[in-house]
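Final report, Chapter 2: Outcomes

The project's central promise was a pipeline that accepts a single protein chain and returns its three-dimensional structure in a standardized token representation, suitable for archiving and comparison. That pipeline is now operational. To close this chapter, we reproduce one record exactly as it appears in the project archive, with the input sequence first and the structure output second.
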Amino acid sequence: MRKVRLIRHGESAANAGEASTDHARIPLTAKGVEQAYSMANSFAGAPDLIVASPFSRARATAMATVAKFPDVPYEIYPIHEFTYLEPTRCVNTTVAERRRWVEAYWSRSDPAFVDGAVAESFLDFIARAQAFMGRLSDHPAQNIAVFSHGQVINAVAWLIERKPQRIDDRAMADWREYEILSHVPNGGGYTMTKPAEDPHWRASVSMREERGETRPER
């Protein structure tokens, strides 16, 4: 039985309402650091593999678990947060200040739309989530800890639960509703399992307990 624990990073400065200059390098708050150590201490035993997003808040959260289990392999996967707003125009803005841009993006409901040179489309984002699931399926490790972001975690859960046949405007609207209703708190997440010889993943909500900050970053 392959088991994957998907964990959202600890509270970041953006989660706490601060302005951010670089979406990939938002630091953890003191509370987020405490949450990272709490997550590390929640492991009853060492996983076979530790994976993190390249974004600093996820890597910083993972490092507490890496320090606890220094002999466990540690890898970086492209499971960073959905960058649907062009990062250059978001410099020095807060979550509240970006709200109207967020609403405009989701009102458009165009899965192929790209907001700028460094942004990605919804199609790109879901393709990353699908590639991540495939990579986990092929990996020899059976017990994997993954430190990522709320939207990535919910993209995986949505793909498992809803099994969309097409990623079109209706699927995009459905995912947005799913993500809002199933918001992942800092330190929360899901457990994915896949029995041997079974091609399908299953997701459990056992990790959805409220831990700390519950506001999204965008």
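Archive annotation: The chain has a mean pLDDT of 92.
This record, like all others produced under the grant, will remain available to the consortium after the project formally closes.
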